[in-house]
User: Fold these one by one.
Assistant:
Number 1:
Amino acid sequence: MSIFARIAWSWVALLAAAGCQPTRVDGPGSAPTVATAPEPEAWWHGRVFYEVFVRSFADSTTGPLANDGVGDLQGLMERLDYLNDGDPATSSDLGVTGLWLMPINPSPSYHGYDVTDYYDIHPQYGTRDDFRRFLAECHRRGIRVIVDLVLNHSSSRHPQFERALLGDPAFRDWYIFVPPDEVPQVRGPWGQPVWQQSGGQHFFGIFWSGMPDLNYRNPAVTTEAYRIAEFWLQEMGVDGFRLDAIRHLIEDGDTMNDTPQTVEWLQRFRSHVKRTRPDALTVGEVWTSTEIVSDYVRADAIDLAFEFDLAAAILDAAKSGTADKLAYTVDNVSASYPDGRYATMITNHDLNRVASELGEDTARMKLAAGMLMTLPGVPFIYYGEEIGQVGAKPDEMIRNPMPWTGGLHGGFTGAVRPWEPLQPGHERRNVAAQDADPGSLLSHYRRLVRLRQSEPALGRGGVRSLDTGRRDVVAWERVEGDRRLTVIANLSGNEIDGYSLPAGGNARFLRDLLGDVALDASGGLTLAPHRLYVLLPAH
Ligand SMILES: [Ca+2]
Ligand SMILES: [Ca+2]
Ligand SMILES: [Ca+2]
């Protein structure tokens, strides 16, 4: 590194260390604009979340649920040091500061998205006291926790549905029944049957017969949803909710998606959540295109929404090696949502794992992770993604146990067998194998998570994509106050020599923050294959 670069970098580092908070910049504007009245920053902006499937994360080694082949809350607690050890000075942990737990309520299914008791913990995962201990331990480490809330439907084995089936007037209208001779002939959004049958009775269930839709036209059901939210926020102390399948909440005739009634219901629900706890977060799963998803955020129906188009575009760029789709999507997404209010990911528990989508190519996985962590929004890492866990549908195969070591069952459990076998190759693809290797995917994720959470321009800044003059190079600028970073990624498998952005000279770049190296870009940048750079310009 040159002396000059060292001095300039030290100056910036000093500013950051002094806690200087640059003024907020909103939107994709070509020039940074200073917001007139900066709003109080929501706690989730600038954080990195991690999505956990408790059943598959870690089986406990002590306590009543130890070594039974099923992951549980105690097991998750035993592995918290891996996620965040609570000490900002150490970098041997992943460093995430948010967790999303997939459903932890009692449920007859392995995944838990059909709930039989909204006020309790799945007995295989622990007790309510276990959850409170877990939450206290997370909060002590600076980790906030949100839980899945499945409002669209309950389990068909929920006692209230069983009573509704029996004709109990107290619960009959909690669900949507029709007489046998009035069953609509309509099918659902994916062409699936939505009118289900049990014991000669016909009811609406958009996903399947085991998940009867709740009837939110009945005020009693809304009151119950409010009570459930209050319970988790007040009695249990969670920091918010991931709201499952909310675009299907309220049907209107044959329309089963995105009805005005659904948006209005969510606006009232969010208001109730904020009355209960003003800083609670709601992240919505509205699985459709940006144009529709962003309506929910603009209407303040939810705080954040998962961005599925952007996830697909990141994956497409890493897979195809071309920037066309991603460059457009970055600008479209950032222009569509207010204040960066969207949640980002590469994949989640409903999608093929990124390692399998990218042919287990570590360089491409690092590239995809780099894009996720340098774009705006609130990023979510799906458990195992950081070590290149493989998996393609059916769903069970993208939700396998986490491989911690090269030992029996990947160190996931001390049981004779885990609830589901580990993915093949776990003997070499596991946490222990990557832990001490600075070139591993895991080490790359650790660097990215740290960089994002220490750089306000990455965590909170505005974005605009840059013309790169090449289809195999994508670039964007992140701006927060006077902090300005340029991200350039070579999507191809070839080295690109003497590269310059068409709009600007390379001489202004001093350092690659990700590689932590000084640059001499006067003769153009050398872009290594499948490599992403976070470039700090000279001022
Ligand atoms: Ca267990
Ligand atoms: Ca640490
Ligand atoms: Ca519904």
Number 2:
Amino acid sequence: MNQCRLKNTMLLRIPFRAHVPLKWLRSNNSALQLTLTQRQLKTDSTCKAPKSPAKSKEADSMLNGSNAIYIEGLYRKWKANPKSVDPSWDAYFSGKPRSMSTKGSDKRKHRRPPIAPSPARVQSRSELPARNISTTNPTTSAAGAAAPPAMDWKYIDDHLTVQAIIRAYQTRGHLAADLDPLGIVQPHGTTSVDGSKRNATESVLRQHYSYVFNDLNATFKLPSSTLIGGSEQFLPLKEILDRLERIYCGSIGVEYMQITSLNKTNWIRERFEKPDAIDFSPKEKTLILERLTRSTGFENFLAKKFTSEKRFGLEGCDIMIPILKEIIDRSTSLGVESVMIGMAHRGRLNVLANICRKPIADILGQFHGLKAADSGSGDVKYHLGLYMERLNRLTNKNVRITVVANPSHLEYVNPVVLGKARAEMYQRGDVTGSKVLPIIIHGDASFCGQGVVYESLHLSDLPNYTTHGTIHVVTNNQVGFTTDPRFSRSSRYCTDVARVVNAPIFHVNSDDPEACIHCARVSTDYRAKFHKDVVIDIVGYRRNGHNEADEPMFTQPLMYQRIRKLKPCMTLYSEKLIKEGVITVADYKAMIAKYDKICEDAWEESKKLSTYKYSSWIDSPWTAFFQGRDRLKMCPTGVSLDTLKKIGEIYSSPPPKEHKFQVHKGILRILALRRKLVESKLADWSLGEAFAFGTLVKDGVHVRLSGQDVERGTFSHRHHVLHHQSRDKVRYNSIEHLYPDQADYNVSNSSLSECAVLGFEHGYSMANPNSVVIWEGQFGDFCNTAQCIIDTFIASGETKWVRQSGIVMLLPHSLEGMGPEHSSGRIERFLQLSDDDPDVFPDTCDSDFVARQLMEINWIVTNLSTPANLFHALRRQVAMGFRKPLINFSPKSLLRHPLARSSFRDFNECSEFKRIIPDAKTANKPDCVTKLVFCTGKVYYDLFKEREDHEQDETVALVRIEQVCPFPYDLIMKELELYKSAELLWVQEEHKNQGCWSYVQPRFDTALIKRENETRCISYVGRLPNSAPATGNKVQFKTEYKAFITDVFGEMTEANKQRLERIVKAQQAKAKAATKAGNEALDAAKKRSEHSLKEKAKAPKAAPKKDAAPPKGADGKSPQEPKKK
Ligand SMILES: Cc1ncc(C[n+]2csc(CCOP(=O)(O)OP(=O)(O)O)c2C)c(N)n1
């Protein structure tokens, strides 16, 4: 028997290496000497180590005792009965070698009882440092602590090193995780002194790398920052390393230490570090295999039936289907009622079949090349959306699953999904995102390559954009089309972009289904608990080429040599389960046969289909909205004078007194001006817009306005959100307080993104037809960074996917000498994307012509010149029996232009949207008109002024086209008829290759051809073609302006020049006189105040009033009376 002898000299001989603190083991190979100093003994007694044998075996664990007397007592006890002490002490005293097994049955060997009765483990731990360091020497103070004896330094150092190693695994373990089923990016692994192979390399352990492998049997107290011990607080180093390896360098790479919240990192740790964290019952394992069978079976079936058809198979990342199933099942049981999925091509058909349960026959029907029974141009099968409501059999709860239709442009669906999810949360009153779950599935190359990913992630925590967490799943097949990650990204992981929002990222080997499902569980729970984004990176491979017709060996020969040798995950996992005895070979075969039969039956069923409907693939059906509705019936948009007055009054008032809201003086001035306008029953741009929003929310229509700086308005005209001048975050928005039962008005400054935010708002607008969702560009041209959303969703979404949206885009537009940018909202691009035929004159005699024209076009393009027209245009968005995107080119200088005002009459019940605004001045004497000028937007006001200056009010008619698209043929015809003999001009300030010219010209021609005996054609007046939207040179700008104005009105006559000079001089004189008068008044006031100050100084000081409160000093107390002399 090995013996522990305690000597009076306090020399403890430990005859063999055991699980004691490292410092006890360092000095000798087999027999180590340790001097227990007085200090240590004192320490041990202060920490209440039992002097007599403890009552329970647990409390007698050898790891609990650290003083000689205590050990001696234990030894005596053990001698009498070896079973009366903890097995660890038994092993120690008897000298039995201790196994380091990490199996569950051995766990108790390393368990340490609590040091002191303490409810919280962390608390009891926190006592330890105090014991070891500060309480050991009562004379030391926190401020001037004496260094502990050298021997303790080593002890402390060793523990700190182990702690650092643990932290290294937590932080960088994922770098050495076994993530790649292809074994291309494989951890190198090192064999350490105990013969174990470990993955953690120097890149993980850094300076501690060499240390680890010296002394593996030493036992260490686990720091509170790890949970690998479970209920054990001490573990031998070997066991610590084994556990860390298994957790952090196995099939899962847990990337979470970038998260700054301790609460979250602790939570994640618990889900991965705790012993048995990954634990699946046989039933659960079988379910995973069943789902894998479906996933792989579906692709195999399609491959069998359609050998050369593109389907963008999932093979190699088949586990994505069981992962999604797990997320949805688990979320449903946690209360989620609606799941919104955004994804690209890869595995999409599989998702539709096995996640959404779209009848497989319908999916197969898509391969048969059937004719569509409804209108639209359709889309390829791997872009179509879906909306299903079905019972989740596992949870017995109904769940709605939406797959949002998407374009080929990878990742651009992300913000659309987020916006749609957000809107659905709003509709359900789901303020925490507990009922609606967005899931976005990404490709590895696109996730790191596309900027929209970053922009969308950045919305995740913004109060008005958050979806309270999105689950991101990356089907990482380690190749993007033909490009290796080495050449497609600079970051280590394709998921690094998600680190910016502190998302935890779980990289997982796709060939380890249980690890994958565990990540799905943790991600679901994380999102449900913290309402934050989370990422699962399924590292797999792509069994075939990019699509099934592609030859991958052209470009990835070595990778595909490996892939050819790999068994599918389904096979690997079935073999594992058969080996474990969870299923039999027969079970497995039955599973495969069962799903194959489902597919074969569906195949037979699909042959019976003769047509299919685009609308059966719609992602936002709005069934209730369309039911029983006459789509061509338009509701009136005008409102009563009382309504205008009420809204005008509130909108022009500061917050009510009870709010004690300190308003900026400038804002008060603006409000006063607004008030004056309301009193004179006039509306400027801001009022017109407020009337639209106010009346919409009054009617129960939710209004949302989003974009950069929209709360104030880029040009400072709006001021919907007032800011308290001395209290942070205190805001007031009067449009939110118009009526007690009004709908919500939500105005929100967005992040500095166009693409993601516009996509988001488009998604938002898809959720509910009874809302007006507006995105405003800071300047119109910035919308070109959102071109993909405009082209592939807004312009063509309805045609491709039968889905409507009433999104409004407000794009500040007009040339005002501000340079190439900030001038143009690129109206020409929107018009070019409009899908009306320029050569077809529509049936203008149809009584529903106006509504039909709107219904049939892909979007409405307006360039409005009056506040009233803005009001009607916005209200018309929900007055139509269908929904259409409205692209409005908004003014900048017109926001305050004295002529760009509308009388309240133009808003009343008898008023409506004006598609064109005829010239009221010339209409009475049309025969005098020699030039009929058509124009749109701000240039009208330029022309209006120039016409006056040129004194051509009677000879030039100015007709504004407010709704450019669809082209108002009926009204244009009237103008052509009215001014029969006038020369026709189209005048625009934009360059000839820009603006509306290329859109209106062929349509004017079509209209003119329609007229009998018409010989005229329309001429262009404006700037010459240019690649830039505007010049950056002021002089050139003016020259260009003068040139096109001269083209319209001719050179100014001498008489007119002199008249204008006189007017200018008179104005200048008036202004000078006003300034002089102002200065004189100022001087007089100054003199008066100086005089009164002098007078005051002369006058004797007035005695303070008796009842007046004495002035307070800085401390708030009354100053002391001056001492009497
Ligand atoms: C924005 C965009 N650029 C380029 C393409 C063309 N394209 C289609 S798939 C693909 C590779 C995508 O790779 P990855 O994201 O890894 O997905 P995978 O196809 O490998 O699943 C490319 C470049 C596209 N569809 N969208």
